[in-house]
Write a structure and sequence with these properties.
97 residues; mainly alpha; 0% strand; 4 helices
């Protein structure tokens, strides 16, 4: 028996939120990766890997794909993705300030 996502996470609004959060952050990483540099001019590869994990989770959720396996549902859960993307936006905000 599979457990389903919470009903509000299956709605179009939450999927749109995932896409709207993921797209700008992915574009920044692709087009202008230097925007994610820290004060010393270096990257934190561990943090960037977590941010990319969050972006991946959001894109998976945003396009409407629901993984069947419990392991993959847990790894790519949208709430975790939103938190990790929040970390990415925090890194981006602190790098600009």
């Amino acid at each position: 028996m599979t457990t389903e996502l919470r009903p509000w996470l299956r709605r179009g609004v939450s999927r749109a939120v995932s896409l709207l959060l993921a797209a700008p952050l992915a574009l920044v990483l692709l087009i202008h990766p230097a925007a994610m540099l820290d004060a010393d001019g270096g990257y934190s590869h561990g943090l960037l890997m977590l941010v990319m994990w969050g972006i991946s989770s959001a894109f998976i959720h945003g396009v409407g794909f629901d993984p069947y396996s419990r392991v993959w549902r847990t790894v790519f859960h949208p709430l975790g993705g939103w938190l990790l993307m929040g970390l990415g936006y925090l890194i981006l905000w602190r790098a600009q300030g």
